[in-house]
Amino acid sequence: MIEFRMRKIAAAVALVVIAAPLAAHAVTGPSSSATPYLLATQLGYTVTSLLTVGDSVGGYRLGGIPDGLGAYDNGNGTFTLLVNHEWSAGAGSAHGVLGAGAYVSKWVVDKSTLSVVSGSNLIQSVATWNSATQASDPLVSTPAAIAFNRFCSADLAATSALSYLDTNTNTTYGTTERLFMTGEEGGTGRAVATIVNSGEAYVLGKFNLASNGSGGTAVGGWENILVNPLSQMKTVAVGTNDGGTGIMTNALAVYVGTKTATGSEVDKAGLTNGVTKFVNIAGNPAEIVNTTSRATNIVDGTRFTLSDTASTTFSRPEDGVWNPGNANQFFFVTTDRLDQVAEGLGTQVGRTRLWSMTFDDITNPDAGGKIDMLAEGTGLDGNMWDNMTVDVSGHLILQEDPGNTPHNGKVWDYDPATGTMTQILKADPARVGDVGLAATAPFNVDEESSGVIDVTDIFDASRQSGRYYLLTSQMHYATGDLATVEGGQLLLVHAVPLPGAVWLLGSALAGLGGLRRRIGC
User: Fold this and answer.
1) Is the pTM of this model over 0.85?
2) pLDDT in tens, 23-37
3) Where exactly are the structural domains of the chain?
4) Measured on CA atoms in the order 129, 133, 136, 141, is the torsion positive or negative?
5) Are 34 and 47 in contact (CB under 8 A)?
6) How far apart (Å, rounded) are the C-alpha atoms in residues 295 and 484?
7) Residues 258-298 pLDDT 10s
8) What phi-psi label fits residue 283: left (phi over 0), alpha (psi between -120 and 50 degrees) or beta?
9) In angstroms, rounded to a whole number, what is the distance separating the alpha carbons of residues 279 and 247?
10) How many CA atoms lie less than 13 Å away from 501 in the CB half-sphere?
11) What is the CATH number of domain 2-520?
């Protein structure tokens, strides 16, 4: 009888144990006015809304179209979150030194409660670029002195990427300051690095041919600028151009500079003295060779070189990320266009792709390397991948931007070891609709998620409790408020992988089994 009761207790506890890590949860954070705009589609995922557009902390409001993110631990139980806002120049309201247009907000969040402690503008002063002198202009802090156009994704560069110790001379080159990298996706296409501690933003004129003294006229359409994390004398960054002009149109730009021991922190980081070249894939002037089928002739292992006169035109290269386990490897996605066929929306074919670009030797990037296609989305298994990150387990997280279409934007987990693509999140269909389901006002079908970064080490340095991601939701409906422009949300995702959850269940059952035997003996 005792044994029977304990079996029932074991079964009941097993249900509780399995439910905790395996259930998909949506949680409204203490500072958010709305439930999560993204919902988990896999067991073991908890999505928490941290802050919703319009929410105010200490009088500072979260503006709309949140995009690229950066985050770091403050060492006092809080973390700082940096957020790009993808406003067009002239849109919305001014933010300190920045006139109406794109800006970066800065938030402090309590790690335990997920309560947002404070909010402020990151950028406090700006140094533009002087093309005549090929140097930075003096910093200015006059209110509304400059306006930027559409800051998209972002990279909080690893500190290892920006400093180098020459052991032969015991001289340190570069900077230990945190630099937040971003750029304009439209207009003048300026690349920008902001010193996080001081809020000083520098326009990086060496990244554009129109301003770097090369005699060219092209400008970028920067989705992101990502600095290679290897500590070396060279500073290497790859810029993804979803747009741009001339040779920079839809190109992968590779900037190579040299760290110094003098000048501003941005000068010392090697971001103002380098050369920009472009990825040129042998025999492939363009990714797409058939405008109907979206076929490509780029095959795995094809060589690429860096050129200042030619570039391969990709089909909207959006975000990218360096492999933290292999400094030579850079992952990136090409968005292409919506595939309508898979969901019966039309006849248009789209082929979004995930690529791996591996340099022979990142200490000599001019030597080139090879490119491989890791995955191809054909509609139901991926549509218009846009933003991405790599997590502590080596998985790649891919976010869709389907635009103003009935397709509901998803988030995917790609495992390079197995080639498995798993859908983990989707936009809340009760708000934005789905194929065959209308959106609910004020929301519409024009939505996307963006800005995903891995923050596992901030929340769990031991990496024993799963994975953590920060990301944003962009809801492209007009709010009618210059302080917000459009909708959106900041979110935290905690993922407890299925194997870990099953292990927890097995451990609990094993313990109960032992207890039953002891009672019954």
Assistant:
1) yes
2) 669 999 999 999 999
3) 2-520
4) negative
5) no
6) 40
7) 999 999 999 999 999 999 999 999 999 999 999 999 999 99
8) left
9) 11
10) 21
11) 2.120.10.30
